[in-house]
Design a protein that fits this description.
This protein is an alpha/beta fold. Helices cover 31% and strands 13% of the residues. A hairpin with a 6-residue loop joins strand 32 and strand 33. Residues 1241-1319 form the RZ-type domain.
């Protein structure tokens, strides 16, 4: 393209689209208009002359490909009514469109059906959602194709038409202009609706969504409705109003709290991996890969920081082997240590010694910045504003999911391998570690030889260290770069899968809600949804460049834009070069439509603000702006907001501008100059909260004034949620929150009230009084009472962009606090002038007492609120309280039942109490606390009782007098006793005489004893008992232990007193140990567990093939042991047996059988050591001992084998296991027999059992028919009751054998057991005998 100006400029670009349009006049002259879109490079954008004209020249090479496309497009436009062409043409050229202008389609009229979207043709819509509850199920039939006035909207039935207009019930929940907007939107492809603040635009948008959703369902259209808003709050307000009727909606954008109704319908939650997702395994795999890569990157970053800081634990791993040996050798020389072969010395300590103290090292290069802590990255992206764009980054995952993933990364704590030892470095399965070791070797060898490392100067050491650091950092950076590349590739796969799932979820949803910022960040996702309807709220704030790709979508048939044509604020664009003249890229489609003269339906009724506030808001409009906006009928003047405002209490005006004056002093005695000087001082409290700014005391006091005004409204019994403080400065918001916290903590205002006490219990939560918000962050919200603070504590200019927003948030009251001289220099001047004319502007605010209307208080600074500290006036209340005191608080509006009376309590005291109640009246309420004053009370005996006053009457009855008094006992002695015992008739039994007296006993001995006890002789009896023990008195009370040893090896536990009664069931733990050394786990009285392992008695000559508990099938081996002991001498033991001590090293060990020491043994004489006790014997002597003991000695009786020397039981001596196992088997047989005898039933027990089992037959015919006893095949008895015949089969509880039978006959393996109860025959014949 070339310019037509004197200076020729050539621009090259690409044609991206072309729209061919012919008017009727142009068709006659065979002319056409072509709208071309040209894509220029960014470098050429600054060269564009936006006011000039250009000639378009198409190059031949590109024309061959472009011209056929334009020819097809031209043919397509002529032969079809393509939706994209229609929408694009009308949006971009509204003034030339057929239906761009005209009157509203209200009433029963309608547009030509050619302007009706195709999917609405011939549809009947249920209008219940916009009808009042009195009327429902009314429908509207949208026009048939090709007919005019095909849409007839319902009207009131004829029965109501005859009534006067004021008595007619409303048919619609909408205002007249809202209804007109709905009718126009439902019958036009493009509908633009404009309304000021509070005119119900968001409510109208929700109703349009419900109607259009119904239309799509009826027309069986499966494309979604796309709701596009500028702010999150507006989007949430629309979705919250429709979610009950349209549950299948999806919201894209900021993550909402779980308490929100639409929280489950967020795409981030809906797209989270779940068990029903077919791609969950791949998703988990990729997410796991991302987490592992991130963990490796984190570990390398930490390792890199250690390298840069020259951490000795890391630097020591970079030392090559030859240098390591040299450093260790030098270390031992300097530490005066002996060099030990194959010993590793601590290299990190050697490195520190070699390098010297770190404090003397030069400043290391700080290439690594402090990395953010856990969670900071996500929070910085999701919860803070980006300074460059002012927008928030849209979230792509849930916070909980991110914390789990990050927590796994932090918890795994991957570590980089040791360079000198790692096979793969830096991690397992990484590159071989040889490459980094080679780099370290080169760094060392290029500087110094191994034998010279300790000769380097300090500077040379530092240079070598820096060379190592540089080389290692370079290697680390290569690895980090590789990991980042892998992470980007994996993240791309995950992101594509996530976006694909988002698209799938949104396509299967009827309504998709998204903010403009989120749509701009995910344009491809939004474009791929193929919406059929687009509804834009706050359209005046959405950039044309953001909305155009979606509005011009291939399947869009219906566009509705809702906004405020009166708004001054333009869409935000952060490249100042593109703003305003001549480029005008900071424009919205809404504004382009308005400037092009497109038809706009205007909302005129006010639903939010009361009339007093509406006037202030409308003062912003200039006559020129009004003329441009006045497209429909003039404003009707009806204000529906007046019908839902709260009654005004405590104030005279619903709107007021307070010209805040800096107070000269907090007291009347301080001079003016001193007050002004004090206000110029810095506020100490604000300095602690806002660290980076200096806040004057005057500015802090203005914030405190705003806080006091909010608290005053709260005292009028308005709820905290109905009071909002809006600021235009973040610093002012902080100061007001600080002031509210100070007010809650320390304000004496109504300190006796339980409500204020409740505030104190809540700590320092300022929202308990009012909400404090920034104006910019209060979009889409409202409050009954708004206090607008326009102070800028930091001296910045007052912002003018959101004046309309700030003035339109209040429903019932708006109070502006600012400094008029500063406001008059800004865009607020028109508001100031308007409020001056109306007389609602001044240096003080009038507060009117509810109870005393004649009391008016003027407040102009925070000190004036002392006159209305309780929210009323300065008069005393003087109302009689429930407690009987008079309320001495100043006038208030809270119930006296909530009052906390601060007077001293004077309620009647309990009987006997003469003390005054120490509490305040409010602390006692209905009952005073018990009196705890220590008091004395006289007892009937004359002694005094001391204790808490409230307990003394009860103690007088329950606590006896414990004073010590002298009492004469029957024995004549005097004894001190407690006073209460002297009146007890049983005192002789209760009190014992403790006097010591002497008495001669019948045995002749004299003993000294206490008078109350019978004496006994304590002299030892010279006689002895039959058992041989000294006589205590008689054998039956002998306390000596029994010397009887049981067969198990334990001793009798019944004592010597039972001479013929010994323990028959040893309850000790069994001491048996098998040949493997495994201990029996049973009690000593039970049969020992038998070891089923193969017998361990094996040597190189003989092997045993039996089980461990069985007797060995091999003889003892008599060969000499071939082993050499640790001392180097030959073993003197037997083959396969434990080696005894060396007779040369331990010559003094004595054999207790042959009574010889090892030194006296013959040279070829063998020794044997018992494993249990370690006693050593000559083999021949010990063999003879076992043989003789078994044949003629003690072991003719059953007894466990013991060591001949120490008498310790022997279990594991393999050479003698034949003797040992034989004896153990006999002991186990005796144990089993003892248990059988113990379980035998005596005749007396048997008789009792028979009587109990036959009890049921005693009422029969003389026991002829009745229960009978039988035994199983193993001889265990059992009883069959009733008739004595078997009717079922079971199993024996003792052995598990089959018992019982069928048809009154027991099984063949059982037999009749008549001898048990003396019966002669079974009850039923044919039983086995």
């Amino acid at each position: 393209m070339t310019s037509h100006h004197d200076t020729v400029s050539v621009l090259t670009g690409t044609i991206v689209y072309g729209i061919v349009k012919k008017s009727a006049k142009q068709q006659q002259h065979r002319q056409s208009m072509v709208i071309m879109g040209v894509h220029l490079k960014e470098s050429q954008l600054s060269m564009v002359d936006w006011t000039g004209r250009y000639t378009l020249m198409v190059a031949g090479a590109n024309a061959a490909t472009i011209m056929p496309v334009l020819a097809w497009y031209h043919l397509h436009c002529e032969q079809s009514s393509d939706t994209l062409t229609t929408l694009a043409t009308r949006l971009l050229t509204p003034s030339t469109s057929k239906h761009g202008r005209g009157t509203s389609s209200g009433g029963n009229g309608g547009p030509m059906t050619e302007d009706l979207p195709d999917y609405l043709m011939q549809l009947d819509l249920d209008l219940t959602c916009i009808l009042t509850s009195q009327f429902h199920n009314l429908k509207v039939g949208l026009g048939a194709k090709g007919k005019r006035n095909g849409t007839q909207w319902p009207s009131l039935p004829e029965t109501y038409q005859s009534l006067p207009p004021s008595q007619r019930p409303p048919l619609y929940v909408l205002s007249p202009t809202q209804l007109s907007a709905v009718q126009h939107a439902m019958t036009h492809r493009i509908s633009v609706i404009s309304g000021g603040e509070g005119t119900g635009k968001t409510f109208l948008a929700s109703k349009l969504v419900q109607l259009l959703h119904q239309a799509l369902v009826s027309a069986q259209c499966f494309q979604p409705i796309l709701i596009l808003t500028k702010n999150e709050t507006t989007l949430d307000s629309i979705l919250n109003q429709v979610i009950k009727q349209i549950p299948d909606l999806v919201r894209l954008g900021k993550i909402l709290p779980e308490t929100s109704n639409i929280a489950p319908r967020q795409v981030v939650k809906a797209a989270a991996p779940n068990p029903t997702d077919p791609n969950r395994k791949l998703s988990y795999k990729m997410e796991r890969q991302l987490a592992i890569l991130q963990g490796k990157i984190d570990a390398l970053w930490r390792y890199r920081q250690q390298v840069i800081e020259a951490d000795p634990s890391v630097m020591a791993t970079t030392i090559p082997p030859h240098y390591s040996v040299a450093l260790q050798y030098g270390y031992t020389q300097r530490m005066n240590m002996t060099v030990q072969p194959n010993k590793e010395y601590p290299l990190d300590e050697i490195w520190q010694l070699w390098m010297g103290p770190r404090s003397q090292q030069p400043q290391l290069q700080q290439e690594q910045k402090q990395r953010p802590s856990f969670g900071t990255t996500y929070q910085s992206l999701n919860r803070t504003d980006i300074q460059e764009t002012g927008q928030q980054v849209p979230p792509i995952m849930e916070w909980d999911y991110y914390t789990d993933r990050r927590g796994w990364i932090e918890g795994s704590k991957l570590r980089v391998g040791n360079i000198s030892l790692a096979e793969d470095w830096p991690f397992i399965n990484s590159k071989p570690g040889s490459h980094v070791r080679m780099e370290m070797k080169n760094a060392w060898s290029s500087t110094v030889k191994p034998n010279q490392v300790w000769d380097l100067s300090q500077d040379e050491k530092w240079q070598l260290q820096q060379r190592i650091i540089d080389a290692l950092v370079k290697v680390i950076d290569v690895h980090i770069s590789g990991l980042l590349t892998q992470q980007v590739q994996a993240a791309k796969i995950v992101e594509e899968a996530r976006l694909s799932k988002w698209t799938s979820i949104c396509r299967f949803s009827r309504v998709v809600g998204v903010t403009a910022d989120f749509a701009a960040a995910h344009a491809k996702v939004i474009e791929s949804l193929w919406p059929r309807i687009i509804i834009m709220d706050e359209a005046q704030s959405i950039l044309e460049s953001i909305a155009t790709p979606f509005v011009f979508g291939s399947r869009v048939q219906h566009v509705i834009m809702i906004g405020d044509a009166h708004a001054r604020q333009r869409p935000q664009i952060h490249n100042s070069k593109l703003k305003g003249d001549p480029k005008h890229l900071d424009i919205s489609l809404f504004e382009r439509w308005r400037l092009g003269g497109g038809y706009i339906t205007r909302l005129e009724e006010q639903w939010r603000m009361c009339s007093d506030i509406v006037g202030i808001h409308d003062s912003l409009a200039t006559p020129e702006a009004d003329r441009k906006l006045l497209i429909t009928a003039p404003i009707a003047g009806e204000n529906k907001g007046d019908q839902c405002t709260l009654s005004l209490e405590g104030l005279e005006e619903r709107a007021y501008l307070l010209d805040y004056q800096v107070p000269t002093s907090s007291s009347s005695t301080t001079s003016s100059s001193e007050g002004e000087q004090g206000q110029d001082e810095m506020d100490p409290q604000a300095r602690h909260i806002i660290h980076d700014r200096e806040i004057r005391k005057a500015d802090a006091d203005e914030a405190r004034f705003v806080a006091h005004l909010a608290f005053y409204l709260y005292q009028q019994r308005y709820k905290a949620k109905d009071i909002t403080i809006l600021t235009v400065s973040s610093a002012q918001k902080i100061l007001i929150n600080m002031a509210l916290q100070e007010l809650i903590r320390s304000s004496p205002s109504f300190g006796s009230c339980s409500t204020n006490n409740h505030l104190h219990h809540q700590g320092t939560q300022s929202h308990m009084i009012a909400n404090v918000e920034m104006v910019d962050q209060y979009v889409g919200k409202e409050s009954h009472f708004v206090i607008l603070s326009l102070a800028m504590p930091c001296g910045q200019p007052i912002p003018e962009g959101n004046i309309s927003l700030a003035l339109s948030r209040a429903r019932s009251g708006l109070y502006i606090v600012g400094r008029i001289p500063e406001l008059q220099k800004t865009g607020w001047n028109s508001v100031v002038e308007y409020m001056k004319v109306r007389g609602i502007c001044g240096p003080n605010l009038k507060l009117k007492c509810q109870k005393h209307p004649d009391q008016i208080t003027h407040v102009e600074n925070l000190y004036d609120f002392q006159h209305v500290k309780n929210g009323g006036c300065s008069q005393l209340c003087k109302t009689l309280l429930d407690c009987g005191h008079v309320c001495e608080e100043t006038c208030h509006h809270l119930k006296h039942s909530d009052m906390l009376c601060q007077k001293e309590c004077n309620r009647p005291r309990p009987t006997g109490c003469t003390h005054a109640c120490p509490n305040k009246c409010n602390q006692c309420r209905n009952r005073c606390p018990p009196c705890d004053i220590m008091t004395k009370m006289e007892r009937p005996c004359g002694h005094m009782l001391t204790g808490p006053c409230q307990k003394l009457p009860k103690w007088m009855q329950t606590k006896p007098c414990r004073e010590q008094v002298v009492h004469v006992l029957p024995c004549g002695h005097e004894q001190k006793v407690e006073c209460h015992r002297t009146s007890d008739p049983n005192i002789e039994q209760l009190v014992t005489c403790c006097e010591w007296v002497q008495k001669t006993l019948p045995c002749g001995h004299t003993v000294e004893h206490q008078c109350c006890y019978k004496p006994i002789c304590t002299e030892r009896c010279p006689e002895r008992l039959d058992c041989g023990h000294p006589c205590p008195e008689r054998r039956a009370v002998c306390t000596a232990s029994c010397t009887k040893q049981l067969i198990c090896g334990h001793f009798c536990t019944k004592g010597c007193a039972n001479s013929d009664d010994h323990t028959d069931r040893c309850l000790e733990q069994c001491q048996y140990v098998c040949c493997h050394g495994y201990r029996c786990g049973r009690g000593c009285w039970k049969v020992c567990n038998m070891c089923m392992e193969p017998c361990p008695y094996n040597c190189e000559h003989l092997q045993c093939t039996q089980k461990c508990h069985e007797k060995c099938d091999r003889p003892p081996c008599n060969k000499h042991c071939s082993k050499t002991l640790d001392c180097g001498h030959a073993c003197i033991g037997l083959c396969g047996e434990p080696c005894p001590p060396c007779k040369k090293c331990h010559p003094d060990i004595t054999c207790s059988i042959s009574l010889r020491t090892l030194a006296e043994f013959e040279d070829d004489e063998l020794a044997y050591m018992l494993p249990e006790c370690g006693c050593v014997f000559a083999v021949d002597s010990l063999d003879l001992y076992f043989k003789n003991q078994a044949k003629n000695g003690e072991h003719t009786a059953i007894k466990l084998w013991q060591c001949p020397s120490c008498q310790k039981p022997i279990y594991t001596a393999l050479r003698y296991n034949m003797y040992i196992k034989t004896e153990i088997a006999l002991v186990n047989q005796i144990k089993a027999q003892q248990e059988e005898r113990r379980h035998e039933i005596s005749q007396e027990e048997k008789t009792g059992i028979i009587q109990a089992m036959n009890e049921e037959t005693k009422s029969g015919i003389n026991n002829i028919v009745g229960g009978r006893w039988f035994v199983c095949e193993n001889g265990h008895p059992y009883f069959i009751g009733d008739c004595g015949g078997a009717t079922q089969i079971s199993s024996c509880p003792h052995c598990g054998a089959v018992i019982g039978g069928l048809q009154h006959k027991v099984v063949e393996s059982n037999r009749f057991y008549g001898e048990f109860d003396g019966s002669f025959q079974p009850a039923w014949p044919g039983q086995p005998q």
